[in-house]
Structures are given as C-alpha cells and as structure tokens.
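Readers of this paper often ask what the protein records in our data store actually look like. An entry from our holdings is shown next, in its original layout:
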Amino acid sequence: MLKRINLNIKLFKNYLKASCGGVFGIAAAGLLFLDKNDLGIDTTCKEIGALVALLAVAFVCAVIGVFAYTTVDSIKDKLTLRYGDLWKIAFSSKGNKKIIVVNVNTTFDTIVDENLSLIDKPLVSPITIHGQWIKQMNKRNVSIADIDEGIENSLRVQKVEPIKIIDRSNKERGKLKCYTRGTIACYEYENTVFYLLALSEFDENNNARNSKEELVQTITKLIDFYDKHGNGLDIYVPLMGTGQSRTGLSKEESLEVTSSLFRLYKEKIHGCANIIVYSKDRDKVSLGG
C-alpha cells in the first residue's frame, strides 16, 4: 500500500486535500443542527479525538482514491492515460471501431520463437508486444501467411519501399526487406485496425536496437500517419522504448515521452489518444499523480 501511495504521492495529496474539505465540511454542516455536547463531545480530550477521527476518515478516503483510480483524462489535449490490458481492448467486440498500435521490428518479422534458449539468434520474443500480437492473432485462427499477406498488401498500397535488403548470409531466418523506422503496415481484424509500427532494427544477433532520438522520431511519424489516415478513430498506444527494445527508458520515462509528444501535436489528434499502461504495472508506473 505504501509503495503505491509513494508512487502517486501528488495524487494522494490532492485526494487528501479534497477528502479533508469534504469530511470537515459535512461535520461543520452537522454542527449547524446538533450541538457537540449532544454528541457527547464535551471535553477537550474528546474534541481532539473527534478531530483525529475526521482526519482518519479523510486519510482512508484518499487511500481508496489512489487505489481506485484507473485513468487520467485531459480533454483539452484529447489524451487519456489509463491502466488496462491492450489485448482486451483490441479484441473487444463492444464499442466503435478503434486503432491499436503494435510496435514491431523494421522487417515486420512474424516468426515467434518460444524456446529462446534453444534457438540460435531467435527472432521475435513471445514476451514483447510484437510477439504477443502474433500469438493473439494465431489464437483467433489468423495464420502467419494471412498476416504476412496483409502486411505486404498494406505496404504495397502505400507504395512504401524498403530502405535496404538484408543479405541472407547476415540473417538466416526471417524477412529481408528492411523499412525505415516509423513505417506503418495496417492490418484490420473485425472492428480493430492494427497499426504495425516499425520501431526497432535488429542487429546481426537479432537483438533490437533503438535510441531515444529514434523513438521520438518514430512516435512523431505515428502521429503524422494517424493525422492523415486515422479517420477520427480512437487510438490506443502501449508504452514503447522499454525492455527488449533496448532504448534504455523506464516505463515512467516512456509514458512521459509518449504523452508529451501527443500533447505537443494535439492538433493532429482527431479522435482520442489513449496511452495504455499494463494493469499489473500499477505499482511501478504512476499516471501522473
């Protein structure tokens, strides 16, 4: 409990201030109709006890507020920060059509290697957003061949050309066409449009490489693409630049970078931009409180 309060100390202070105002306001209103002596508060000691009790109620209300909050909205910036599960949002049949961003590598590989320790130079890790998306699609009977065809069709319609062709001697498995960071292939499934966003380039050992500057450029390109092709749909964006992307950002820093860029270019957001922090990271990432 203390860890989450400390993480959201600013939010806790705001809740505590509001709770104190509410609790003491109600108490003051009650004293307009009841005398404190009628309530048995007839000594200084009891007055102090009543004050402590009211403070305790306000404190509990503030704690409940910190533990209960799941979103931070900025209507002015058309931006919502929220805890949630990206896949539950992506594959929900409820609500309007939406856009889900999935960061992938610059060759749009679709081979997910489950037994990483048994494979030399494994490609897509199953624990990444990239790998999880492919597995989620497979669960819904969408084959790798279908995914590959959808990616190729999207890039062809956009007339996007690769910036280089990797020599097979340097990459034994996977795709060889490498696209610039920020390239987006669209894949539509039911009422969801997936933006497959090329973020990290794999090195000769298939380890993702990405700098902070490249991450900023990539997110900026995402916003530009959404501005032109989003059709006013709500867009859901996971934290990027953490973990295996090797950008070196913490989850808190990733949230700050992503939200700052969406606020900076708010004139390009025609629906609502939702930045999703995985629910199980509530004790690691504050939404700004």
Notes: The helical segments are 2-7, 9-30, 44-68, 86-90, 129-139, 144-157, 212-229, 251-264. Strands lie at 71-74, 79-84, 98-105, 164-165, 177-178, 184-189, 192-202, 208-209, 234-238, 273-278. The first strand starts at residue 71 and ends at 74.
